[in-house]
Structures are given as structure tokens and as C-alpha cells.
User: What shape does this take?
Amino acid sequence: MFKECIENVRKNVPLVHNITNYVTVNDVANVLLACGGSPIMSDDIDDVEDITSICGGLNINIGTLNKNTIPSMFAAGKKANELGHVTLLDPVGAGASKLRTETANKLIDEVKFDVIRGNISEIKTLMLGSGSTKGVDADVADKVTEDNIDETIAKLKAFSKATGSIIAVTGAIDLVCDSDKCYVIRNGRPEMSAITGTGCQLSGMMTAFVVANKNNKLEAAAAAVCAMGLAGEIGYERMAEGDGNSTYRNRIIDAIYNMDGEVLEKGAKYEIR
Amino acid sequence: MFKECIENVRKNVPLVHNITNYVTVNDVANVLLACGGSPIMSDDIDDVEDITSICGGLNINIGTLNKNTIPSMFAAGKKANELGHVTLLDPVGAGASKLRTETANKLIDEVKFDVIRGNISEIKTLMLGSGSTKGVDADVADKVTEDNIDETIAKLKAFSKATGSIIAVTGAIDLVCDSDKCYVIRNGRPEMSAITGTGCQLSGMMTAFVVANKNNKLEAAAAAVCAMGLAGEIGYERMAEGDGNSTYRNRIIDAIYNMDGEVLEKGAKYEIR
Amino acid sequence: MFKECIENVRKNVPLVHNITNYVTVNDVANVLLACGGSPIMSDDIDDVEDITSICGGLNINIGTLNKNTIPSMFAAGKKANELGHVTLLDPVGAGASKLRTETANKLIDEVKFDVIRGNISEIKTLMLGSGSTKGVDADVADKVTEDNIDETIAKLKAFSKATGSIIAVTGAIDLVCDSDKCYVIRNGRPEMSAITGTGCQLSGMMTAFVVANKNNKLEAAAAAVCAMGLAGEIGYERMAEGDGNSTYRNRIIDAIYNMDGEVLEKGAKYEIR
Assistant: This one.
């Protein structure tokens, strides 16, 4: 089934509107192209509604939110809802500042998101009003482990039910849930956390996957997570002596570019709970 | 003659002021350095006139235009005109939104551009008030083919005459025209479209080429197009099993870095119509 | 001693808040991760005080300053001072425009910086109210040479005394001074100047080094300069036929990622004056 998910992306070439941070935006654009999608970036209030209208999906990432782009996020989100487009929220740094937490919460209140994707600290912040986000990385205290996984999944399912959004939590173990089904994914490598923006890249790519598989959104979101993790594994195998995180970044995007349905289907490591 | 064009860039180290989008800006800076130029980015209304004054050329790219940077584009453009500096417009996404189309048209009305460089859908939008821009990529319906090339060239020459600008349309076949002469260029590889920002990179590099060859602007613009396409060919030859669009991006910029006049002269594939 | 400096970065994982330009921001984030730090970017006035509060250091880079981010620089700088956090200023393009020169001078007046790091033209502008900054690169006329080095060091020490900041000037010869001691550093390669943002990367990394070595700030700043230059040397050795500035960028960040204390200690080339 994951095979069809990625094949649909390559077949349909979904246009994705990204309102995203300027740190990782180039990698987000390249990974969207690598997976078969087509990226557009636009964040001015006078531009976003037109741009989102010609796209199939909207990826909102609050990584470098500011007073000009925040209203654009709401305007684009509402327009995308109106048009029935796919919407995804990446609440980067929710919990790390009042502005980020409040903006993410308000976006969830006013825009219907198909997917909310973040690290466990960001998602805990949104679920519980607490969580100990340490900057843009998840805090160790929040980490998903074999010990707390069942409890975490139950909470994520409840949050999915409350919001109507698929909840995707990425980390050493990835969890992609709707209100009654959770993909527990074990692809990826710890070295991926030494690259800036693998989460942002995943959010962009996941939007394309969901747009191209609108009748199968949960599986598409899970397939995107597996694809990213698997790309991290494939990319790592190609690393040579002396290579580091900058080359690894290129290798991962390259692996997405070369990934076909068979490779994804075979390499995906997940169970459903 | 293309040989001298690139050699003049390396000899003169033209300083290029870029008001450009934040998606591809890093690659624009690196390709400008690779070809022998020197990049500066500045987009605040209180900064752009000073910065453009110390440069030889101004590259305006509307890829992530916003209410703060739009007035800066006009101010810098007018200052550059006043000083007789080279000016280039890259109307990214013209046709995709009202703001983009109107801003591009207004820039052309109020600023004299030496070159307007875009894909065929963007240029058609500016020429005809129509064109079917699909996001930031050209629409298939607008594609330059062997069947419509003569008609397209005639229109581009007329648009060049109307604007006083060199018109550079890039795609599978590239066309670089003034009012009576058109370079038809067949360098490049289709895989280049899987990299974000090869067009933006070309606009930056083309500005440097034109600044360093002010008495020979049309040829300089055509030389830049050939250099970019040829770099795409050279870079592609260096791709290994498992490499993808991210590595390809690096290989292309690397190929520009290593390209000398002889290589460009010999590798350029063009005819004049 | 440099050995301990880099080991402390890897051990303490300093969180660094960056208000930096959008040209080189991705490389700054990746080099911070490569050296063992953790980057956060935030530049909205309503966000910066919260973000800087959870960090250990603040890196302010005026490379693409604008009317929204300038007030954020002051607010974050003052907050960081209040909390006793490490602060660094990278006055990109000071001397190239009135806005850049005035903003840098005003920041130095109102914020106490632990380190000011720039090229010689930028630092001369700040020291003397003059200097001939040519865009974002140092002017040849300002270059530190064996002939003017003693005189330059004397001036930098005086500037350090006046500001209370460590002054780091990078170029072919790097100088890292406080009011009575100067590290004269001869690591690096001339080819590094063909990559955009090696200076910005160094500023980010230096902030992490100083945060992780608060009792040893001058040495930490010098160690960061040696690490960057040495990475340029190591990265250059790994360059293959046909590689250019884009690959070199990756190789340098990779070299930081793989650099351990022994390698830095052994490879650092400096004398103290």
C-alpha cells in the first residue's frame, strides 16, 4: 500500500504551497521535487490566497514565524479549508516561546488541519498545554520509549479525535495516528538529528503524499514517514570516510529522489497498534 | 565570443546586488561566486539604494515578494537606472497570483531592465496579459517546441522592442532575444528541473555576465544561458549510482566553478535566428 | 587547550539563538550541529526574548537586516545581557551602507558583546568610523599583511579595551584579540572565500564555543577560528577532480562534524602576540 502512496505522488505531481521557515526552505523545496511533488513558497498576505488556490496542499511551518507571516498562515489555511485542500501544520518550537505556542494553538482552533506533525515535545505542548520543548528539538524527558509507548499512543489518538487531525510524532520511534489506528514506525537513523530540517523536509513531503492520496490520508502520512526514515538509512549506507552531516543531508534527499515503490514497500518498518 | 564573456566575469569580479527569494538565495550566492562574481543580498528600503550604488548590477527576483521588499525593488531599480547599472528582472510566478503579475508589470513600467528572464509561462503572462503559469514552473501548454518556435521568437522580439529589454526564456529550448536577433540554445538536461532554483541561479549569474560585458549584453546573456546548461551537462556526467537532485545541485555549481572560456566556447550549443 | 574547547562544545551541546541573514542561515544551522551545538533561529520582536532566554548564547548577524529584525536584535541583545548569556555580533557589510554601519555601531553602544567578529574592512569601519568595505568582502586595501600586522594588532587591542569585547578579524591571517593578548592564526585556505557564508558559519560556531567555555572565552573564540580554518584544510584535501565551491562547502561542514579534540589541537596553527 505504501508502494501506491509514493507512486501516486510521482504520477500526480502535487503542487504544495509552503509557508515555511527560511532556515530549511531550500531543502524542503528540493525534497518535494525529489519525491515527485512541486513546491511553491509564498508568505505575503496579499499573495497566499491566490497561491494556495492553485495548489493541492498547504504546508504551514512556524519555524521562523513573524508578524507578517502569521496572518498569512491564517488566511492561507482558511482558504485551503474552503477549497478542500490538504493542510498540514508543523508547530516548530511550540513550547519554546509564548508566540509559538499561542500561534500553533490558534491555528489549530481556526484552521482544520489534515495533519499535525512535530516532535514529541511540540505535540505534548499542544495536547497538554505543557511539555518541555528544548528549543527546536524534543526534550529527553518527553522521549517516546518502549515503556511509555502505549500510553503515548492513547493520548495521541485522543488528541486526533479532539482535533480531527492525523497526529504524526517523529523521533527515534515515529507514531502516526488517527483516532483509532496508530502506525508505529522504526525507520531512520540517530545521525539524522545532526542535520537541520529533516522534520521540516518531512512535513513538506508528507503534504505531497497526502495530496496525492486523498482517500488514504493516514497511510499516506505514514508512508511519508517511512520514506524519510528509509532515505536516512539508504543515505547512511552511502556515506564515505570523512563524510559528515552536510553530505548526509544531500544523500538523504538523493535517496528520496531515487526511491521507488518497491524499495519503500520493502524497506518500511512498521506495525499497527 | 562566449569565451571572452566568461573570462570577463572572472577578470572583473562584478559585484551583484540581489533582491531575491529566500528559497534559493544561498545557491544564487554560491553560483555567483562560482562564475567569478561577488554577491550581496539586501532588501530593506533603507539599505537597498546604498548597496546597489556600490554594485555593478541588480538582480530582482520576485519569488518570495512581500510588502516590505516590493518597495525596495522599485527603489533599488530606480537607483540602478539612475547610475546606469545593469538590471535584470526574474518574474518568478508571474501569472500564478495577482500580486506577482501586477508587481512584475509595474516593475517593467517603472524600471528599465536590461534583461527579463523567466520561463515561457511567466514571459507569456507579461507579454500577453495571459499565459497559464502553473505555480513556479512553466505549463506544458506554453512549451516552446520546434513547431511554435518561429512564432514564439517573433513575439519575443516584439516584446523586446516594446520594453527595450533583452528577453531570455529558459526551458528545454532556451531563447535569448533582442528586437532583431535571437539565440536559440540547446544546452542543458531535463533533470535540471528537479532542482529548485536553477532559474534563479541563472538570473544571478546572467546579471554578472552582463555587468562584465556591458558592450555586448545580448551575447553575455546568451553565454550565461549556455554556461548554465553546459554545467548541467557536465554535472550530470559526474553523477554516480544513487546520486539524486541534491548532489546534482552541487555538481552544477561545481561545474560553473571549474568552467573556463575554452570549455564554454566548445560546449555551447546554439544557433542564431 | 583548544582540545578542551571543542570537547566542551560536544559535551555541553550549547543552544545558540541566531538572528541571522537568510542567505547562509542553513549552513549556520548545520555547522552548529556539526560542532556539537544546537541552533535556533528566531527574529520576531514578540519571539526573540523568550527564545534567547532558553539559550546559552546569542549570535547577531546583520547580513540581511531589515526594519522588523533590527529592533529584535536590540531586544534579544539586551535580554541576553540581562541573563548573562554569551553574545556575538557579526557586522556583515558594515561600511557598505549607512544602515549597516549605524546599526552595528548602535548595537555595540547598547548591547555588551562578548565577541565582535568580522572581516578587516568591517572591523575598521567600526573602529575608525572609516574602512573601505567592498560589499560583504574585505577590501584589498585593508588586508592584514606581515607588514601591518603589529600596527593592526595594537589597534584591535585598543578597540577591545574600548568595547570590552573580544575582537575577531578573519581573513588570510586571522586575529583574535582581547585588550592584551592576540592569537595570530594561519589556518584556512584561500579557496574558502569562494563559498558564501564561511564567516557567518564561523560566527555561529564561535558563539557555541564561547558558551561552552565561559571561563575561557578568548581561547574558545580562537579555537573556533582554528577549527574553521582547519576544516577548510581538511575539506580541501578531500576535493576530487571536478569538485568546486558547492562541494567544498559540504566538505568543510563535514570536517567540523568529524573533528575531535586531538585533530584540532594538532592542526591549529597559531602564535600569541
About this structure: The domain at 2-272 of chain C is CATH 3.40.1190.20 (UDP-N-acetylmuramoyl-L-alanine:D-glutamate ligase). Chain C touches chain A through 35 residues (CB under 8 Å). Residues 69 and 258 of chain C are 34 Å apart (CA to CA). Residues 217-237 of chain C form the longest helix (21 residues).
